[in-house]
């Protein structure tokens, strides 16, 4: 699922007509790139594609001061129907995040334990830093009173995922020396 479509349609439905720059500023204030796969740069492509599909339409063009002209979009009835379908699917379907590390570990099993241990230790340090950063940011936003309840619970979701990743990597570190190549070739090599 292209979550940027869900985000754009949802923002236009909830907040009314907006131009791309307004959407970009709004998602930057909630630091969406830190906790989702949405990238601010993908908004303009999504706006264009949604307009081509008739899910949003041009409401007007604005030119505030000396700034460039900006197209303001609004959601169409077809867009509202698409939003409802996307939102329903996203709320109900569980899609675990894919991490290329899993494939890398599969093909790296059997390398010297020190190589894998170094990689896992680096990942652990990164994950712990990310957890500290998200927790600190959530605390700061709460202290300033600018974090809505839904934002706080989403940031806690990110913290919980990072904590689970840390625990899994700690378990992995303990078994790295015993890892053997996977698949039929690895099983035969052990015989």
- The neighbouring-strand order within the major sheet is 1-3-2
Q: State Rg.
A: 22 Å
Strand content: 5-15%
- Please give the number of β-strands: 3
Mean pLDDT, rounded to whole units?
A: 89
Biggest sheet: strands, sense, closure?
3 strands, antiparallel
**Model regions low in confidence, pLDDT < 50 over at least 5 residues:** 186-191
**Which term fits the overall shape?**
elongated
Sheet/helix structural class: mainly alpha
Task: Supply the number of helical segments.
Answer: 9
- Helix percentage range: 55-70%
Distance between the termini: 43 Å
State the order of secondary-structure elements, H for helix, E for strand. Answer: HEHHHEEHHHHH
Would you write up a description of this structure?
This protein has 191 residues and is mainly α. It is built from nine helices and three strands; from the N terminus they run αβαααββααααα. Strands 1-3-2 form a three-stranded antiparallel beta sheet. A hairpin with a 7-residue loop joins β2 (56-62) and β3. α1 (3-15) packs across α5. The longest helix has 32 residues, at 113-144. It is elongated, with a radius of gyration of 22 Å. The model is unreliable at 186-191 (pLDDT under 50).
Short description:
With 191 residues, the chain is mostly helical. The chain has helices at residues 3-15, 20-29, 32-35, 43-52, 77-92, 100-108, 113-144, 149-175, 183-190, and strands spanning 18-19, 56-62, 70-75.
Entry keywords:
disordered C terminus; 3 strands; mainly alpha; 191 residues
């Amino acid at each position: 699922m292209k979550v940027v479509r869900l985000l754009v349609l949802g923002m236009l439905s909830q907040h009314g007509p907006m131009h791309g720059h307004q959407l970009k500023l709004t998602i930057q204030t909630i630091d969406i790139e830190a906790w989702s796969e949405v990238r601010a740069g993908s908004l303009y492509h999504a706006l264009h594609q949604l307009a081509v599909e008739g899910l949003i339409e041009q409401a007007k063009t604005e030119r505030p001061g000396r700034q460039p002209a900006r197209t303001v979009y609004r959601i169409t009835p077809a867009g509202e129907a698409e939003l409802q379908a996307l939102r329903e699917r996203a709320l109900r379907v569980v899609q675990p995040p894919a991490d290329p590390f899993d494939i890398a570990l599969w093909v790296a099993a059997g390398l010297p334990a020190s190589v894998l241990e170094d990689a896992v230790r680096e990942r652990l340090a990164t994950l712990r830093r990310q957890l500290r950063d998200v927790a600190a940011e959530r605390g700061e936003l709460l202290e300033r009173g600018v974090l809505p309840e839904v934002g706080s619970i989403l940031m806690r979701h990110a913290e919980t995922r990072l904590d689970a990743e840390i625990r899994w990597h700690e378990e992995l570190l303990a078994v790295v020396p015993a890892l053997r190549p996977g698949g039929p070739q690895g099983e035969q090599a052990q015989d």
